[in-house]
Amino acid sequence: EEARALVDALGAVRSAFKDEDIVVLGDTNCVQQVEPALETFTRAGLRDLNAKNEQTHWRGGAMDRILVSEGQPEFSSARFSVASDRFLEAKRWTPEDFKRSLSDHYLVFATITVADDDD
Predict the structure, then answer these.
(1) Average pLDDT over residues 78-105
(2) What is the DSSP secondary structure assignment for residue 15, as one 8-state letter?
(3) How far apart are CA 39 and CA 41, in angstroms?
(4) What average pLDDT does the segment 80-102 reach?
(5) Are the beta carbons of 79 and 49 closer than 8 angstroms?
(6) Widest Cα–Cα separation across the chain
(7) How many Å apart are CA 106 and CA 95, to the nearest integer?
(8) What three-state secondary structure class fits 36?
(9) How large a percentage of the chain has pLDDT more than 90?
């Protein structure tokens, strides 16, 4: 239901900003690629940058997603990353340490091309 409501609102966002460059990100609670919400986003023209289901939660699971507009040049080479292993290793923390000190979700980020807007 939440995914459908968000997708229904995207038309107004595109219209208001006169732009097709859409980024949706957050804790979707979708741990597998075949979840109904992700299918709704895909049908709406969004591409899940965490399609490999990289672990984003300290106990496992790929709940955090960054979705971008499919077919937009700015996002064609976009990459998804999770700051988990290197962060934990640098601090000499276990996942439990991370959860206790910061959050139950790791930091996720996307690398995208910054370019002149095409639309």
Answers:
(1) 91
(2) H
(3) 5
(4) 91
(5) yes
(6) 47
(7) 9
(8) helix
(9) 76
Are 63 and 27 in contact, with CB atoms under 8 Å apart?
Answer: yes
Contact partners, residue 81, CB within 8 Å, separation at least 6: 108, 109, 110, 111
Average pLDDT over every residue of 49-63: 92
The 3-state secondary structure of 64-109 reads EEEEEECCCHHHCCCEEEEECHHHHHHHCCCHHHHHHHCCCECEEE
CB-based contact 19:119 (threshold 8 Å): yes
- pLDDT recorded at residue 92: 94
Confidence of residue 87 (pLDDT cuts 50, 70, 90): confident
Q: Which helix (H) or strand (E) segment is 14 a member of?
A: helix 2-17
**Beta pairing, strands 64-69 & 46-48:** antiparallel
Alpha carbons 75 and 119: distance in angstroms, whole number: 13
Going by C-alpha positions, the residue among 67, 47, 59 that lies closest to residue 108 is: 67
Looking at the predicted structure, is the pLDDT value of residue 43 above 80? yes
The owner of tokens 């979705």 is 67
